[in-house]
Design goal:
The complex is a heterodimer.
Chain A lengths: L1 H18 L5 E3 L2 E4 L10 H9 L10 H36 L1 H14 L7 H9 L6 H30 L3 H9 L4 H39 L5 H9 L6 H30 L8
Antiparallel strand pairs in A: 1-2
Helix pairs in contact in A: 2-10, 3-4, 3-6, 3-8, 3-10, 5-6, 6-8, 8-9, 8-10, 9-10
Chain B lengths: L3 E10 L7 E11 L4 E5 L6 H8 L7 E6 L2 E2 H6 L3 E4 L11 H5 L1 H5 L4 H14 L15 H13 L5 E5 L7 H18 L2 E6 L2 H7 L2 E6 L4 E7 L14 H15 L14
Parallel strand pairs in B: 3-8, 3-9, 6-7, 7-8
Antiparallel strand pairs in B: 1-2, 1-4, 4-5, 9-10
The chains are: A mainly alpha, B alpha/beta.
Chain lengths: 278, 266
């Protein structure tokens, strides 16, 4: 299905390019229709052939190698953010489930924290961590990880808490009749019973980690990642339009790779649960 | 020594509040070792509350509950009893075998010992070939048999059951009753069994304890006296019908209906 969908999208792109207005168009007086000139909307074959040519004139490496390396870098950063975010989310949820006081104290802040537009957080983190101007270049990936964690942990925390609180009362009574202490009830009952809640939240967290990392890379110009490539290739858009799209391909592959990973994790976690449970 | 001794027990929910409920009043009940006692009564008579008091899942307002000569609390900590509910309460993510091993894990048994015991229990409930199945792949009756195997896994001397066959169809139900009697004979387990089916109470029990609601109390005790060797013919015997009639008449004296909302079976 996937290659078919890809061909379909490429077909749509070329179809619009052949019939759409060169200089863009207005719908009900608002500029809505994208421009179809080669500068704004390169041909699909120009984009793909651009992948094989060097990044800058006279360079040795093909641009796909540069983009692949940057995508791999961003993937690893996003993966670290995802893992830390998921563990943190589960940890916070366990604490909230154990101590009602913590839930009441922390939950409102968690909700409010997610209303902050993440793009403002990047410079804030850099400022708070007080990186000197010299390590700024070498350590900004930490800010990218922090942003990824910040976005990834929230869905996991909320879903895990809900899952831990949805244990069937009959099962809890059984564990009580067996004189099981709280933590063994957590490990043997509450946590496995919460898996159908946690697994879909992990999918969201994977996507959120990628968004956080790429946004940090673009807004802070973190070197090495695919976000930075989008930023710098965008500046070449007028002289070399397809170049930007090679970086966009990289970002798409990044999101796809993370999606495949979290789906695999989801399947693995859910393999013992009844198929009808979500 | 009695397996269960309930002496002068009462239970009040929401004491002092407007919605105060006297769930149980002046309950005295002794269960001998090896005896099978059915608790029967209309919804809201406190039969499940009484079972939970014996299990130390709730505490009495006044009076004392002892199990095997210990406080109910100590008996729970020692896993002196096994328990089975209307919902089998099996863990979806564990195989049948590992569900049965749950009480043993909590007792800290090592794996080979647990495997041996779960195999033994699977033979007892005739589910050996399903050890590696997941609970959701089994029928309701089979799930309930696994729950009974789990309740008996640690070889407790006392089995507390709260309408364990309530959700099963009539045929499966009668089959399960016969199985339960066989298992109890083989293991010598004492049973306290909550039900609201008169034939079920009579068929299973040595003694049927009849309860009535508002306030929950024991109104009659019927000695069944059908002997221990019961089979499908027992259900058609004249003595069986006599006992059923006796329990039905004892129940007729109790108030049925207009039960306090939200307190059915508590």
């Amino acid at each position: 299905m996937f290659p078919l969908a890809f061909v379909f999208v490429a077909g749509l792109w070329e179809a619009y390019k052949s019939v759409g207005p060169e200089a863009g168009g207005k719908v009900l007086g608002i500029r809505l229709l994208p421009r179809t000139a080669d500068r704004a909307m390169p041909h699909v074959w120009d984009m793909t052939s651009r992948l094989g040519r060097p990044e800058v004139r006279g360079g040795t490496e093909a641009i796909w190698q540069v983009v692949a390396a940057a995508t791999w870098y961003s993937f690893r950063v996003a993966l670290v953010a995802f893992v830390i975010g998921a563990l943190l989310g589960i940890g916070v949820a366990v604490l909230m489930a154990r101590f009602k006081v913590i839930e009441r104290a922390v939950m409102p802040y968690l909700v409010v924290s997610q209303t902050v537009p993440i793009i403002v957080l990047g410079p804030l983190i850099i400022g708070l961590m007080a990186y000197g101007s010299r390590d700024l270049v070498s350590k900004t990936w930490i800010a990218a990880i922090i942003l990824g964690v910040f976005l990834a942990f929230f869905p996991v925390a909320v879903a895990t808490l809900r899952g831990l609180q949805s244990t069937p009362p009959a099962s809890l009574e059984l564990m009580e009749s067996l004189a099981a202490p709280w933590w063994r009830t957590l490990v043997k009952l509450r946590f496995p019973a919460a898996i159908p809640f946690i697994a879909p939240a992990l999918r969201l967290a994977g996507a959120a980690a990628v968004v956080g990392v790429v946004v940090a890379e673009i807004s802070l110009g973190v070197p090495g990642g695919v976000g930075r490539l989008i930023l710098s290739y965008g500046q070449d858009a007028s002289s070399d339009p397809p170049k930007l799209y090679t970086a966009v391909f990289g970002a798409a592959v990044l999101g796809l790779a993370m999606a495949l990973l979290v789906v695999a994790i989801d399947r693995q976690l859910m393999r013992r649960h009844p198929p009808e449970a979500t | 020594m009695e397996a269960v001794r309930v002496a002068g027990v009462s239970k009040v929910f929401n004491q002092g509040a407007v919605n105060q409920v006297d769930a149980l009043v002046d309950i005295d009940l002794d269960v001998r070792k090896g005896e099978f006692v059915s608790l029967i009564g209309p919804s809201g008579c406190g039969k499940s509350t009484l079972l939970r008091l014996i299990a130390d899942l709730i505490q009495p307002t006044t009076g004392e509950v002892t199990v095997n000569g210990k406080t109910a609390h100590q008996a729970r900590l020692d896993q002196d009893y096994g328990m089975a509910f209307q919902q089998s309460g099996l863990f979806d993510w564990r195989t049948v075998e590992r569900n049965i091993e749950l009480p043993l894990e909590l007792k800290g048994w090592d794996k080979p010992k647990r495997r041996a015991r779960s195999a033994e229990m699977l033979t007892l409930v005739k589910l050996t070939e399903f050890s590696q199945h997941m609970p959701w792949q089994l029928s309701g009756g089979m799930q309930q048999r696994v729950a009974i195997a789990r309740a008996l896994a640690a070889h407790p001397e006392l089995l507390l059951m709260d309408e364990p066959f309530g959700a099963l169809d009539e045929m499966t139900r009668e089959h399960m009753q016969a199985e339960l009697l066989r298992i109890c004979r083989e293991t010598g387990t004492t049973v306290v069994f909550v039900t609201h089916s008169i034939p079920e109470a009579v068929y299973l029990a040595d003694r049927v304890v009849v309860m009535s609601p508002r306030p929950g109390r024991i109104t009659a005790t019927v000695d069944v006296g059908l002997g221990r060797d019961r089979n499908e013919l027992t259900r058609e015997a004249t003595e069986f019908y006599d006992r059923v009639t006796e329990v039905r008449e004892a129940l007729r004296g109790t108030h049925v209906g207009d039960v306090v909302a939200g307190l059915e079976d508590r």
